[in-house]
Amino acid sequence: MTTEVGSETEVKKDPEQVGPDKAKDKPEEASETVENEKSGKTSSEEAQDSSSVPAPASHSSPSSQKKEKDSSESKGISRFLPPWLKKQKSYTLAEPKDEAKKRAAGEEQVVEESECHPPEGMAQPKRILEVVAENNAKADDKEEKHSVSSAETQPAKEDGKETEVEKVAEEKEEKQEKEKRETKEVQTAEVISQKSPKKIKTVQSKVVLLDGTEYTCDLEKRAKGQILFDKVCEHLNLLEKDYFGLLFYENSDQKNWLDPSKEIKRQIRSLPWLFTFNVKFYPPDPSQLTEDITRYFLCLQLRQDIASGRLPCSFVTHALLGSYILQAEMGDHDPEEHHGDYISEFQFAPNQTQEMEEKVAELHKTHRGLTPAQADSQFLENAKRLSMYGVDLHHAKDSEGVDIMLGVCANGLLIYKDRLRINRFAWPKILKISYKRSNFYIKIRPAELEQFESTIGFKLPNHRAAKRLWKVCVEHHTFFRLLSPEQPPKAKFLTLGSKFRYSGRTQAQTRQASNLIDRPAPYFERTSSKRVSRSLDGAPMGISDQSLLRDFPTTGRPSAGDKIIDLEAAGQGKLKEGGREDDVSPLKTPQLELTQDGKSNSLRVDGENIYVRHSNLMLEDLDKTQDDLLKHQASISELKRNFMESTPEPRPNEWEKRRITPLSLQTQGKKGDHIFQVKTLPGKEKQWTAMPRIAGTKPEEIDKSSHETLDIVEEKKQAEVGIEETLVVDETDKGKMQVAADAGETCKVEHLSKKDSSSLPSYSSSSSSSESEDEEVGEYQPHHRAIEEVIREEQEEEEDVKRRELEEKIQHVEDTPQSSKPTVPVESMQVTAEDSVQENAIIIPTEEKNLSEEIKEDLGEEKEEEQLKLNGDVSHVDIDVAPEIICCSEPPVVKTEMVTISDATQRTEISTKEVPIVQTETKTITYESPQFDGSADGSAGVLLSAQTITSESISTTTTTHITKMVKGGVSETRIEKRIVITGDGDIDHDEALAQAIKEAKEQHPDMSVTRVVVHKETELAEEDED
Amino acid sequence: MAGLGGGPGAFGRCTHAVVRALPESLCRQALRSAAGPEVDFARAEREHQLYVGVLRGKLGLRVLELPADESLPDCVFVEDAAVVCEETALLTRPGAPSRRKEVEAMKRVLESLNLNIVEMVDENATLDGGDVLFTGREFFVGLSKRTNQRGAEILADTFKDYAVSTVPVHDSLHLKSFCSMAGPNLIAIGSSEAAQKALKTMQQMSDHRYDKLTVPDDAAANCIYLNIPSKGHVLLHRAPEEYPESAKVFEKLKDHMLIPIANTELEKVDGALTCCSVLINKTSEL
């Protein structure tokens, strides 16, 4: 059975299976024939075979076999399927028309027919692949199984469930229960499988290019920024792309750089997928750029900057630069062609006058002979000397509340008051850059005669603005000052803080790289700047200036908090009202539809940020980012994606191996597999279909326990006492939960939130919140080889509260499998024992896994990957795994802490300690799958074994209890995992939790999650006055 | 058009100079920061004629000499009335009310040169040209008794191409009372504590690294650098008779054509070398 299941799942995965009926019919016949042949043997054998056959079937399984299997499965499943689920099956059923007839005749007939038909020859023309597979001798066992299954199932479907029942009865008396569950699972699996192809949803994203045109492409929803960026650069034929980036606008005047290393949707959230391609790092000396095309794009950017007023210049300069634009676009001045107001169509300056145009025209005449590339170069040579060239301005207030502007440039940080530069801090002078809430701090190296470092604070309009500024600083520092992005080792010294680091190439690296550019100068068309000017008018692009030029609507007070509160309020409200949230999502990300549907509670922190000490996560991130970018992002991201998407694989992929083996998890993994399998049987497989390998291996184990519970407890403890809220949400059938629910398992998710932060989450929804903006407080201390400066960032997030320590505990509980089937223990010992379905108690020794021991640099790639997980994209996880398991994330109630911020006057030292932590809140949310109670709790059972394993990593402590019980003839294995995630502000708890769940699932593919309890402890801080 | 400032190589280029004769009222009525010996008008006139002679005769500049105005005792210090950079001239609003009318004559002459004229009409703004140091790459504006923030802002608005940084000036009349440009990228700076402090401020505020030429005497640090096509680097500096130690420092500038000029009389009323002329580089006759 198990094997079948495995194969079936595979089949389902294949798109072809679903394919046109016609095609299938023939193949089916063929398959039937095969089946028939074998079928005679099989009905009884099937069960046994399943164990024996496993691997080969999976490997070889050609589509045809799969199809057969499918049908069989579907049939079997169909019986148990609730009406609503049946629809899905319908296609499978519909396919075999011939078969149906045959079935009607009787199984025997079917066999005969099959025999009569030259097995596959008929079918071949249509399906070559299938045929081949069938032909293979190897296939025999498989085929037998398949055939059997198919024969059984198909007839059952069409004829009616009765027949099925009969067969079933014959075959399996004992197993019925299991089957039922299996079937249910299968159903769910089917559902999933169907959805899975859809999962890869694409989103159309638009990018406004520098010439004002739009580039449109479809992106996978989960695509990272890099993917889009690469596409754009490819479209532009741009190689020296490190100077550029993609912007998206919030509120039309707040621009954010799309982080290439993170998923797009998490960054933009609900914003439209509309970006603008812009210069991010203005090369101080454009003449050092290698290619003209690069300079051309820089020119286009500068034209925008100038025309919009972002880059101020004098009348004379406007005229001069304008004349170069004319020369580049129109060539030499031609009195016959160029007359009248041809110039007026161009926009050279924000306030373009007739006088200026005349001057431009006049100067244009003097450029005779300049090629477009030369004109561009001249343009750049003049533009680069402008004092505001490459300066990214941010509104702020000084300690006395005076409006100033902070300008980030290649050399450091410039302070402007009105148009005057009133101070300047070169990068070498800056020891640390940090932000907290809406405050931005720089720690200044002591001057010659001074002994102490001083910290200067600035007040930004809101928290997000502070974070944006901080990020820009980190990026500029890294790009212009470092030879390479910060290395992981250095990261060690970093304290805690946001994970954010610049992940791209530095200027030094990009120069090196561009030296290697070896291609003929690419031809490119210079589009008229007229277009550019137009685009400026309406488009979002020009807007950035406004932010600078006009005062922010927001008061000096952090507005971020407000938003956060709203979100939370919404989320909480829902939770409390319904006990579950059907869609918190609207606020957050649409990404995880499944999860959201299911229930996603997003943990949102009330109020603003709580200052949190950060764990070393930053470091991790650094590693990741660096490697990614420096090496092959694509490959890594693939890895990551695979990892995340993949459901538990029987054989761990490389990543897993690394992670697990060192940690000595192996045993657990086995157990887990069993457990999960028990419930999932067919369903699982389908889900896992993604991984081809699975089919072979897992099938064996499928039998075991039926019910499992996964408790995921997320606890965040931070010290202080707080209010505990417990929410219990039952999830019965919600989208994702279906699997679990259907299986008859319950999931409880308990959230105990005590101080915390935004972490938790919602796997689904949470993701949105988490990544992009989670960090409330960031510190960046740039260590570089040559440079000692340390930049420190404090992360913050609007939503997130700062957490000092968050502990998240995840408990996985598995429960009693009602029926156990014989499993073939692949690696795990326990499995075998259990097979004796009934009363055998299976003892599973628990093993620990260290998710991450230390995420620091030490762990090379492994850690990176782990990090990925931890920090990682929840989204992937959510969709595939998390959804099923859980459900829950709930907005932790966190209160805003008000940090009194003394605006740092110059030279005032500001200590981070300021943050008063007032309260702690705890929240517990439990999600249980409905059926859980019945199965698990029913009988006390006999304890066979129990094990506890603890592993620790920097941020995570995982305690695993594995208990095997025998209840009423059914062995039950329960694995309870407690994962404590501790972290300061930056940890993305949602992700961490999702990750934990996912891992749990992966480790125990055969088990289902019945219970998820999340405890959150959050530190609450007082509210600021402001 | 050479572009912005014509680049570093163009610093100090100059075709025209605006000067103004000194009125007799200067001796008694000119503003002075400290009481002292009375100005010897005749000697002052001789020194000034020598000064103008160098610009016109030796360096070949077209010198536009405004007549003296007895009602404006400080009118000889034309520098304070206008800041000219490339094709743009900012008519200032001198910090001393008694000097505001000096700008009128300056306006007329600058208009005759077809410069883009910007007037400082904001009544809250004050700016003396003596507080404006243009390095070729950026402006430093001393915030002194004569120049305020608003004045500096207007200057920044006028010369948008350049960074304008403010430098507090406490012990001296003007920023350029103790410093000036002695060459491209070379700042002459006095040795006083105030001068050194101001230099540090400027260094911190600038993205560029300037060389510095430290002279023992603050007053001697005010010199005039010109880049004359036929003569190369030209430096007008205070005579050895006045500041021998400082003169020795200047004499180490091997690449410069050094022209010592005495300014003993006008110094009594806080006059320095740069104060007495507005240098203009007209590259076109537009």
From TrEMBL, chain A:
InterPro entries: Band_4.1_C (IPR008379), Band_41_domain (IPR019749), Ez/rad/moesin-like (IPR000798), FA (IPR014847), FERM/acyl-CoA-bd_prot_sf (IPR014352), FERM_2 (IPR035963), FERM_central (IPR019748), FERM_CS (IPR019747). The keyword Phosphoprotein applies. Keywords: Actin-binding, Cytoplasm, Cytoskeleton, Phosphoprotein. SUPFAM superfamilies: PH domain-like, Second domain of FERM, Ubiquitin-like. One of its GO terms (molecular function) is actin binding. One of its GO terms (cellular component) is cytoskeleton. It comes from the Eukaryota. Residues 203-484 form the FERM domain. It is found in: Cytoplasm, Cytoskeleton. GO terms for biological process: actomyosin structure organization; cortical actin cytoskeleton organization. The keyword Cytoplasm applies. Residues 50-64, 758-770 have a biased composition (Low complexity). Residues 1-184, 544-563, 750-825 are annotated as: Disordered. It holds the Pfam family FERM_C. PROSITE patterns: FERM_1, FERM_2, FERM_3. CDD domains: FERM_B-lobe (cd14473), FERM_C_4_1_family (cd13184). Residues 9-44, 95-106, 137-147, 155-184, 781-793, 800-815 have a biased composition (Basic and acidic residues). This is Band 4.1-like protein 2 isoform X2. It comes from Aythya fuligula.
From TrEMBL, chain B:
One of its GO terms (molecular function) is dimethylargininase activity. The active site is at 174 (proton donor), 275 (nucleophile). Keywords: Hydrolase. The keyword Hydrolase applies. SUPFAM superfamilies: Pentein (SSF55909). The keyword Hydrolase applies. One of its GO terms (biological process) is arginine metabolic process. One of its GO terms (cellular component) is mitochondrion. Substrate binds at residues 31, 74, 79-80, 99, 146, 269. It comes from the Eukaryota. Belongs to the DDAH family. This is N(G),N(G)-dimethylarginine dimethylaminohydrolase 1 isoform X1. It comes from Aythya fuligula (Tufted duck).
